[in-house]
Design a protein that fits this description.
Chains A, B: It comes from Pseudosulfitobacter pseudonitzschiae. Two copies of one chain form a homodimer. Chain A has 313 residues and is an alpha/beta fold. Helices cover 51% and strands 12% of the residues of chain A. In chain A, strands 3-2-1-4-5-6 form a six-stranded parallel beta sheet, with helices on both faces. A three-stranded mixed beta sheet of chain A has the order 7-8-9, with helices on one face. The complex binds NADP nicotinamide-adenine-dinucleotide phosphate (2 copies).
C-alpha cells in the first residue's frame, strides 16, 4: 500500500526536532496522506529556515508550544538526552487526549525522563523506528527510509490500546512493520544489534585514524577491504550516540563484557595458532548472515550494490 | 579504458584456484582481451566441472602441471595456507622466464612459503587485489570486481622491473589502480584496514548469535540498525580468514592490542558518564568517512544504495 494516498490517521501531527528521522517521517506521511496537517519545530533558527525553504512540514512554528497546540499526535525527534527538557517545554500546551510519542534509540531512559512531565489525559507511547543513515539534519530525510523496516512501540503500563492501535496504523502507513515490546527488552536487543556494534566501529575507526596519520592516508586509500563499512557506522551523529551510550549504559556494558571475552578467546587462538578454533568460529557466524537476507533485512548483492563502474567515471 | 578490448599483456595466463578472485580476474581479462589464452585449475572435480559448465577460463585442466605448462603468467589464487603446497606442485612445470604471482591477503608469509620452491629464471611478484565480497567459489566472480580498486604489488628484492611493469599493466587492464609496497608494510596496513575489522565483526556476530538463540531470532529481525553491516563482513570464507590470522599474526595482534586499549577507555567513559570523552571521540572518527568518500572508495548514498522498496515487493 506504500505510496498510495490513504485516509489521514491523525488530524494534526507535530514534529518536535527536524532532523533525519523527523524529516523522513514527514515525507512518508505526506506520501501516504496520513495527516490532515503536519507542524514542525526545531530549536535553531537555521533549521527552521531550512525547513521552510524545502517545504519540510506544512507549517514551521517558531515555538514548540505553537507547534503542539491542537495536535492529536506529538512526535519527539530530538536526541535522547534532550527529551526531558523538550517534554517539560511542551507539556503545558498539549491538547487533552493527544498522544505523545518519541523516536529515541533508548527506551527505559526516555520513559523515565519524559513520562513524569506529561499531564493526565495525554497518552504516552514511546517508539523507535529501526532505520537510519549516517547523515543528519533537516535535509537528510527521504520518504522511503522506513519502508520494510521495523518500528518498535513500547507502551507503558495502562496505555489505552486504541491510542496504540492508531499510532501503529501511522507507522504502517509510513511503510514500517510494527512490533510491541517492553522497554528493558528493547534496550538489550538494541545494545546487541546497534549500540555495541556502533561503539566497536567507532573504536576501530579511531585506532585506524591514529595510524592513518602515520601511514599518510593509506588507511583511507585502502579502505575497501573491510574497513570502510565500519566508517559509515562511525560517521553517525556524535550527540545522538553520546546520549545513547550514557542512557543505555547497563545493557551496553553487559554486551561489551561478552564481546571482550569472546575477542580475547579469538586473540588467544591467533597467538597459539589454534586454526580449528578460528575456523569453527568463522563457520558458525556465517549462518546468521543467511538469516538476515532471508528475513529481507539486507540484500545479497555483491558489495551492497555499490557500483564501482559508476564511481569510476 | 575499462571494457575496451586491448592488446594481450600475456600470451597464456594460468589461474591456479578458481574461486571468487580467480573467476573475477578471468572475466575481467576476457573483457579486456588481456591474454591470448587463459587456463584454469582447481583441486576439486566439482569446481573444475562448474568452471567448464560456465566457461570459466578458455581451457580447464585436470592437473596444475598441465595448466601452467607454457604459461608466461601463473596466478596462485588459493588460500594463503595452501600457497606453499601449490607452489611445490607447479614448480617443476614452470616455463623459463615465466612470472608467478599470487593474490593472497597476507604477503610476508606467502613470500616465505612460496619463494623457496620457485626455480631460478622465474620471476616471483606477489600481489594482493583489495577487493572482495562475502561470496566464494567459481560462480561468485564478476568482471567489475576490481574496477577502481587498488591492487598492491610487493616485488621481492632483485625483481626484474620489466616483469613488474608487465604485471602492473595486466592489473590496470583489469580495472585496478596499482601501487607497490614492501611486504611488512602491506601486512600492517592490511591488519588495520581489513584483518582486525574482520576479526571484530566475526566476534560481534558471534556474541549476537549466542544471544540470538535466547531472544528467538530478534537479532536477525532487528539487524538493520547497524548489526547487519557486520554480518556481511563476518560471512566471508572461514578457510581464507583462518589462514589470514594464522599468517598475519604479529600485525593483527598489535592492532588488536591498540583496539582493546581504546575500547577500554570508551567503556570507562560510559561507566563514569563522561559524555565529553564520548562526544569528542565520535566527532574525530567522523572525518575519516569523508576522506573515504572523497577518495572514491565508497558511495555516500544513504544505506549504501540498498533499495528497501525493491526488497518489499
Ligand atoms: N539517525 C538514526 O540512525 C536514528 C535511528 C533511529 C532513531 N534515532 C533517534 O531519533 C532521534 C533524532 O535523531 P536524528 O537522526 O533525526 O537527529 P538529527 O538529524 O541530528 O536531528 C536532531 C534534531 O533534534 C534537535 N536537537 C538537538 N539537540 C537538541 C536539544 N538539546 N534540544 C532540543 N532540540 C535538539 C535538532 O535541532 P537543530 O537542528 O535546531 O539543532 C534537530 O532538529 C534521536 O533520539 C535518535 O536517537 C536516530
Ligand atoms: N575473498 C576476498 O575477499 C579476497 C580478497 C583479496 C584476496 N583474497 C585472497 O585470494 C585467495 C583466494 O580467495 P577466494 O576468495 O578466491 O577463495 P575461494 O572463492 O574460496 O576459492 C578458493 C580456491 O582455492 C582452492 N583451494 C582451497 N583450498 C585449497 C588447498 N588446500 N589446496 C589447493 N587449492 C585449494 C579452491 O579449490 P576448490 O574449489 O576445488 O575447493 C578454490 O578454487 C586467498 O588467498 C585470499 O586470501 C581474497
Amino acid at each position: 500500500m506504500t505510496g498510495v494516498a490513504q485516509a489521514p490517521v491523525y488530524n494534526r501531527i507535530a514534529l518536535i526536532g527536524l532532523g533525519l528521522i523527523a524529516s523522513s517521517m514527514f515525507w512518508a506521511i505526506q506520501r501516504g496522506g496520513l495527516a490532515g496537517e503536519v507542524t514542525g519545530y526545531a530549536r535553531s533558527q537555521a533549521t527552521r529556515d531550512t525547513a521552510r525553504r524545502i517545504g519540510l512540514t506544512d507549517r514551521v512554528c517558531d515555538t514548540a508550544a505553537e507547534a503542539v497546540a491542537g495536535a492529536d499526535l506529538v512526535v519527539l525527534a530530538v536526541p535522547v538526552g534532550a527529551m526531558a527538557a523538550v517534554a517539560a517545554e511542551i507539556a503545558p500546551h498539549l491538547a487533552k487526549g493527544a498522544t505523545v510519542t518519541d523516536v529515541g534509540s533508548v527506551k527505559r531512559s526516555v520513559i523515565e525522563s519524559v513520562g513524569p512531565h506529561l499531564p493526565e489525559g495525554v497518552h504516552f507511547i514511546p517508539g523507535h523506528p529501526l532505520a537510519g543513515t549516517e547523515h543528519s539534519g533537516p535535509e537528510s530525510g527521504f520518504a522511503t527510509l522506513f519502508d520494510n523496516r521495523w518500528c518498535l512501540l513500547v507502551p507503558v503500563e495502562g496505555t489505552d490500546p486504541q491510542a496504540t492501535a492508531r499510532l501503529r496504523a501511522l507507522w504502517e502507513g509510513i511503510g514500517s512493520n510494527v512490533e510491541e515490546m517492553d522497554a528493558d527488552h528493547h534496550d538489550l536487543v538494541l545494545a546487541v544489534t546497534s549500540h555495541t556494534p556502533h561503539l566497536i566501529a567507532y573504536t576501530m575507526v579511531g585506532v585506524a585514524d591514529d595510524l592513518g596519520r602515520v601511514t599518510d592516508g593509506e588507511v583511507i586509500k585502502y579502505s575497501a577491504a573491510g574497513f570502510r563499512d565500519f566508517t559509515r557506522i562511525a560517521a553517525s551523529d556524535p550527540t545522538m550516540w553520546r546520549d545513547v551510550f550514557l542512557t543505555n549504559k547497563d545493557a551496553t556494558l553487559e554486551i561489551l563484557g561478552r564481546f571482550t571475552e569472546e575477542l580475547f578467546a579469538l586473540q588467544r587462538a591467533i597467538r597459539t595458532g589454534d586454526g580449528d578454533h578460528l575456523f569453527d568460529y568463522f563457520t558458525r557466524t556465517r549462518a546468521i548472515r543467511r538469516g538476515i537476507i532471508e528475513a529481507g533485512q539486507d540484500t545479497a548483492a555483491p558489495d551492497f550494490g555499490r557500483t564501482p563502474q559508476v564511481s569510476k567515471s
